[in-house]
Write a structure and sequence with these properties.
Blueprint: E1 5-9, H1 14-24, E2 31-35, E3 41-45, E4 53-57, H2 64-80, E5 85-88
Parallel strand pairs: 1-4, 4-5
Antiparallel strand pairs: 2-3
Length: 89
C-alpha cells in the first residue's frame, strides 16, 4: 500500500518522526543532516527517492529559523533527487 511513500525526518523532533513511522508501519529514510563548522546545514540522502511521494517530518518549533531553514534545504534536496511529490508535515 505504501510502496512509493518515503518518510524523511529533520532534526527538530526525532521522537515525533519515529512515532509517525511506527504508526504507519514504515521506516524513516536514511538521511544525514549535520552542520558545517561555519553553521551551514548539510543534507545527504542515503537512499533513492526518485519517483516517490516524500513526506518531510520537520516541526518549525524553537529555534524557528534553524528548523525552517533545515526544512527548506530538505525540500531542495528532495527536488534535486527527483521525488514525485514532496509534502512538508
Amino acid at each position: 500500500m505504501y510502496e512509493h511513500l518515503t518518510l524523511i525526518a529533520g532534526r527538530a523532533h526525532p521522537q515525533l518522526a519515529t512515532e509517525v513511522a511506527e504508526f504507519l508501519g514504515l521506516k524513516l529514510a536514511h538521511v544525514e543532516i549535520s552542520n558545517f563548522p561555519d553553521g551551514e546545514i548539510f543534507v545527504k540522502l542515503n537512499q533513492n527517492i526518485r519517483g516517490c511521494d516524500v513526506f518531510l517530518l520537520q516541526p518549525t518549533c524553537s529555534p524557528v529559523s534553524d528548523n525552517l531553514l533545515e526544512l527548506l534545504i530538505l525540500i531542495d534536496t528532495c527536488m534535486r533527487a527527483s521525488a514525485a511529490r514532496i509534502t512538508a508535515v
